[in-house]
Amino acid sequence: MARAAQNAVRHGLLGRFYLIVGEDPAEYEAFHDHLHGELNPSGALEEALAERIIEAFWRLQRVGRIEAEMMDSILEAARQVEQSPYLPVISSPPPTTDGHQVFLRPPTRPPEPKPKPSQVSLGAAVKTQMQHSDVIGKFHRYEAHIERGLFRALHELQRLRAARQGHPVPAPFALDITTDRDPDK
């Protein structure tokens, strides 16, 4: 357990990898030790790459939990909007304004309690969310960023090992693909 307490000091960029609230330092330490043993780094550079790989895998585990919590939150917000006694109404703006304005109108009578749960689907809630702020799209770009870093570090570790074992190691190969040109031109 004393070793787990040193987590924030010995792991990650500039020697620090922070756990977030709700993450168990002992669980991270066991995860770290297991992957570290699998990667079996040799030398300081391999050690640094192994740490990056371990941290990226841990972050990817967070992604699943965060995405589930985000979806729950989006669905709950959509259900609350559906159950609100105030209905958003899009109306033509008065002549003094320069764009559309949202007016809230109170209900003409008190809202009746809904005896059954909301019928808002997750798909409908996500569609509405993406039309207004695209938090999910941004989150998936964050996930892809972590994955790219993970695989870069993993491939570099493989290249270092191959070179250390005397195998010829070709230069890294990168291919950029764009889709902004007309294929018929």
Question: What does this 3D model show about the protein?
Answer:
The protein is mainly alpha-helical and 185 residues long. The chain has one domain (2-108, 118-164). 56% of the residues lie in helices and 5% in strands. The chain is built from six helices and two strands. It has helices at residues 2-5, 7-10, 25-39, 44-83, 122-132, 135-164; strands spanning 87-91, 101-105. The protein has a two-stranded antiparallel ribbon. α3 (25-39) packs across α4 (44-83) and α4 runs antiparallel to α6. The longest helix has 40 residues, at 44-83. The radius of gyration is 25 Å and the shape is flat. The model is unreliable at 1-14, 87-96 and 98-107 (pLDDT under 50).
Write down the overall geometry: flat
C-alpha termini separation: 64 Å
Using the CA coordinates, give the radius of gyration. 25 Å
Number-wise, the strands total 2
> Count the helices. How many?
6
Q: What's the story with the biggest beta sheet?
A: 2 strands, antiparallel
Q: Please state the structural category.
A: mainly alpha
Low-pLDDT ranges: 1-14, 87-96, 98-107
Proportion of residues in β-strands: 5-15%
